[in-house]
Amino acid sequence: MTTQTRNGDLASSIKQVLRFLPAPVGIVSSFAADTGQPIGLAMSAIMPISLEPCSMAISVNRSGSAHAGMLASGKFCINLLASELRDHMASFASADLRDQRFTQPDWQQHGQVWYIAGAPASIFCEVRETLSFGTHDLLIGVVYDLIATGREDILGWANGALGQLVPLH
User: Fold this and answer.
1) Element at 145 (helix H, strand E)
2) How many C-beta atoms surround the C-beta of residue 129 within 10 A?
3) pLDDT number for residue 20
4) What is the DSSP code (8-state) at residue 100?
5) Residue 144 burial class via C-beta count within 10 angstroms: exposed 0-12, middle 13-18, buried 19 and up
6) Is residue 103 packed enough to be buried (19+ CB in 10 Å), middle (13-18) or exposed (0-12)?
7) How far apart are CA 18 and CA 44, in angstroms?
8) Does domain 24-158 have CATH number 2.30.110.10?
9) Per-residue pLDDT of the chain (169 residues; tens, 9 = 90+)
10) What predicted TM-score, i.e. pTM, was given to this entire model?
């Protein structure tokens, strides 16, 4: 199938193409600086930046409910998920289920930042740089702690659904 976008809607076309681009998926958590309440969102816009210093980037929509809190707190945690934790995603992917966020018993605090105990990896970052572009802010954080189980079955997002990448044999 060939789609031309010269006169079409470029945003819709690129969105369709990007559905097939596999990406890690997780829940990025933080806290409201004024109340200490946990905040978070599901996302696949997660990217390693550097090993020296160890750093990660996330892309957060400025209109999202967690955006202001993440900037104010200056910290976030990328919780990578395994298949048995996939049910955590629903409440973070839907504003209608917001009241169900952080209700599972495996949510814990590390300092003021919330993380999922038993997740394959929880990567704790302190925001060092912010770059605004279009509708989103790119938050670059220096990793200050890591809790990892050693599991390698991290969920990803592709073709509009959760899945796992497996090696070709």
Assistant:
1) strand 136-148
2) 12
3) 77
4) G
5) middle
6) exposed
7) 11
8) yes
9) 455 555 568 888 888 887 777 888 899 999 999 999 999 999 988 999 999 999 999 999 999 889 999 999 999 999 999 888 888 988 988 888 989 999 999 999 999 999 999 999 999 999 999 999 999 999 999 999 999 998 878 888 887 778 887 777 7
10) 0.88
Contacts of 60 (CB under 8 A, 6+ apart): 28, 41, 43, 45, 66, 67, 70, 136, 137, 139
- Contacts by residues 143-147 (CB-CB < 8 Å, ≥ 24 positions apart): 143/53, 143/54, 143/55, 143/56, 145/110, 146/121, 146/122, 147/110, 147/115, 147/117, 147/119, 147/121, 147/122
Q: Which residue has the tokens 């789609």?
A: 3
- Two structure tokens written together for 84: 């048995």
Are the C-beta atoms of residues 110 and 77 closer than 8 Å to each other?
yes
As a whole number of angstroms, the distance between CA 158 and CA 67 comes to: 24
Q: What is the dihedral of CA 5, 6, 8, 10, to 10 degrees?
A: 60
* Structure confidence at residue 7 (pLDDT): 53
What 8-state DSSP symbol labels residue 152?
-
Residue for token digits 């220096």? 142
Supply 67's token pair. Answer: 């955006």
Tokens read off for 137: 């802010």
